[in-house]
Amino acid sequence: MLWLEKNQIWGLFWAQPRYECDIYAYCGPFSSCSNYTESFCQCLDGFIPSENWKQKDQSGGCVRRIPLRCEDSSVNNGEDRFLRIDEVKFPLSPKTSKVHAAEECNLACFNSCSCNAYAYNESGACYLWDEELLNLEQRSDGQTIYLKLAASEFLNPRGNKQLIWIVAIVVPLTVLLPASYIFSRWRTKRKAKEEIEISQDILLFDMNMSVGTSTSELSIGDGASKGKSKDAWFPLFSLASVSAATDNFSAENKLGEGGFGPVYKGKLLNGQEVAVKRLSRQSGQGLEELKNETMLIAKLQHRNLVRLLGCCIEHGEKILIYEYMLNKSLDSFLFDPIKKGLLDWRTRIKIIEGIAQGVLYLHQYSRLRIIHRDLKASNILLDSFMNPKISDFGMARMFGGDELQASTNRIVGTYGYMSPEYALEGLFSIKSDVFSFGVLLLETLSGRKNTGFYNTESLNLLGHAWKLWKDNKAIDLLDPILKDEASYPMLMRCINIAFLCVEENAFDRPTMSDVVSMLTNELVVLPSPKQLAFSFMRMQNSNPHQERPEICSVNNITVSLMEAR
Description:
Layout: E1 2-4, E2 9-11, E3 31-33, E4 41-43, E5 47-49, E6 62-64, E7 81-89, E8 95-98, H1 102-110, E9 117-120, E10 125-129, E11 136-138, E12 143-149, H2 161-169, H3 173-192, H4 194-207, H5 239-245, E13 254-258, E14 261-267, E15 273-278, H6 287-299, E16 308-314, E17 317-323, H7 330-334, H8 345-365, E18 369-371, E19 380-382, E20 388-390, E21 397-399, E22 406-407, E23 410-413, H9 420-425, E24 427-428, H10 430-446, H11 461-470, H12 488-501, H13 512-520, E25 559-562
Parallel strand pairs: 3-11
Antiparallel strand pairs: 1-2, 3-4, 5-6, 7-11, 7-12, 8-10, 9-10, 9-12, 13-14, 14-15, 15-17, 16-17, 18-21, 19-20, 22-24, 23-25
């Protein structure tokens, strides 16, 4: 800006960004941006717009139309293939290596389930993209990438689209009318036979198809699992079908007990395994929390968030069905003296970075800012490749674009992970999740629980870690099982980041965007931490003879307190 003395106004001299496509990830994942088209954003072939495009918000990007074979073993349409895309600016953050031929680069991506695309140049450089493809841009001076798609995406090439439309238009109405009549009769018979309804439910459940209502139109009450879908592909199922999948909620299928009820393992007709969360009728999570969780997760698309497959609201039951995570939750490894050995240094760093990416998506890249409010080790699920996925959105809250903070007189969450302003005053914001992430980061590095840790001088793990840091003994915080493989500089960096996240003053804590930058970019200079918030976790007790503080949290239990205002 320049000050124009004559006119007594500021004049624009230079501004950035000049174009929409210069804004980072303007079109979201798996979408290409072009400054020369009216809509700017267009989904890549094989992908469809996410739901928020209907509200003219394209930042949510696009989602895969057909899952890759290695992502979904039920897909039997042949091996995944690659689509060539020319004249594009490379997405950010590729993995780079040297190869002797293009075929080696192709195979490297083909054999990796996490690889979404690759590129190769004549100098022998191979670029692999394991994360979502962000910041793609159509440019005449761009390069060529190869996008991995399901084989069935190649069955109807673009050249046949015109023929398909012609055939669809000239189909005689005399064919459609009898078909409608037959379909109507079929629906009548289906409703009359309970056993057919159940088998159809389970079959649709297997295929993850929509047989229910939009999550925004949930009708609460008996028989609510029937409805019409308008704007969300979200299956709702009968209690009988869910019961059949879990062998009538047998004890053998029980995976564990959460804060709101038991979780069961279910098996569909095609062999796919699912996790079934059966909310206890005496739990604090009622219909509002159920609707909240279903509406939130159904609209979220990120590799580090658990995928919700459907739900059941019938005969007083409230049930959620998720993708099954083979390795269950992070706490089952982290705090087990034997199983923690499976979490080597590389795996723990991968888990930390994955959690950070998931929380960043909730705070910044989803359509509405979402505060999780119950981020803890037992709510981090691990798939067969030890990739973390954030779960349990029953306590989450949505914020509008201009909202920064909210308050509540119903404090929900887990002691040890709650920020001081939330635990004491009911104030929560994105910085509340940042605090929880900092605690989780220290637990992951040390292999110890925060509130379950005691010694003669420290209230909890945070206090213990802070004392070690002040005494220049931070290396002693590391889980002893990792002492021969951990990177010392990365360890010090992670501890520093954790301390910044658990600052007593919410204003002093970084955003998750800052956290991701600090974790992934060694060139980012880290500020020194100030005063940590850990003294508030001491249980108030005037008994001077009490030798140690009470544990006020269990990692797999969520606590709700009602406070007067």
